């Protein structure tokens, strides 16, 4: 019998977790597989850890990892994938926005259809704000143009993967993790299942505009070097333009003499060029900063407690 690990990153999910566990239990009963839960408490400030401990005491199949502070969903997913021992591993949000009933179809695709990954993709973005919807749409348009790694619009982190895929993802030890890119980078045969997006069952989203914006920049920097090429390209274009301007000014001075004028235009040009220079330096700086963080080789997460701790308590 196959073992399926369910990895759940949780950050302040005290309201959703009990509902999540009950709903998933209903589905997993129908699966002809051994089940293991791996909850990751990502430094929650509410009672999430207490609920997880409670579940772990009552249900032997529940394992958990609790971080020393909030390290972010990417770190939580990595920890979950590293701790999971199943033949098949799935990552699910705790808010039930990833419909558990899809697990049945996913399991079937891996068992009987020879796929390595079965992933969920939402048809719509119901349950998200207008700003977030349009921002996400633009992000996918841009990244499709500038990155070789394909990012599927609407793809969620909800997917069932074979062990070989999980090992491939864990083997990528980069500090700046952008899972949608990593999932796509490793390849393998993927089956996509579409579904209508739902609102979260309880609690609130952990993302605000700036978090999402910097996550998007992270994705671009991690999976594309095109911004650097754009910066260099703008530099070359400006060199050509300034060379033409020099020719123009020499010709004009030779023909019409040299009355002292053009101060305002000069100031405008200086402002424009300094702006572009700072912008380009900013882009380079962003890549440098990421390189700096990678070279430090800091741990991606720090564990404070796992389910082994509570067994000792008893
Ligand atoms: N999450 C996490 N760490 C964070 C933020 C979120 O582990 O710093 C978890 C969260 O508990 C949830 C999942 O990631 O299980 C998705 O978060 P959320 O529902 O807030 O994201 P959204 O659905 O709005 O994209
Ligand atoms: Mg959600």
- What is the helical fraction, as a range of percent? 40-55%
The averaged pLDDT comes out at 87
- Ions, cofactors and other bound molecules: uridine-5'-diphosphate, magnesium ion
* Helical/strand content category: alpha/beta
What is the 3D shape?
Answer: elongated
User: If you compute it from the alpha carbons, what radius of gyration comes out, rounded to the nearest whole angstrom?
Assistant: 25 Å
Termini Cα gap? 31 Å
Please tell me the total number of domains.
2
Write the CATH fold name of the largest domain: Spore Coat Polysaccharide Biosynthesis Protein SpsA, Chain A
CATH classification class of the largest domain: Alpha Beta
The CATH architecture of the largest domain can be named as: Alpha-Beta Complex
Question: Explain this structure to me?
Answer:
This protein is an alpha/beta fold. It folds into 2 domains: 3-223 and 300-313, Spore Coat Polysaccharide Biosynthesis Protein SpsA, Chain A (Alpha-Beta Complex); 226-296. 53% of the residues lie in helices and 16% in strands. It contains 11 helices and 8 strands. It has helices at residues 16-28, 48-58, 73-83, 102-112, 130-146, 163-170, 179-185, 209-223, 226-256, 263-296, 307-313; strands at 3-10, 34-41, 62-67, 88-91, 117-122, 155-162, 190-195, 303-306. An 8-stranded mixed beta sheet has the order 7-5-6-4-1-2-3-8, sandwiched between helices. Strand 1 (3-10), helix 1 (16-28) and strand 2 (34-41) form a beta-alpha-beta unit. Helix 5 runs parallel beside helix 8 and helix 9 packs antiparallel against helix 10. It is elongated. The mean pLDDT is 87. Residues 93, 95, 97, 200, 205 line the site of magnesium ion.
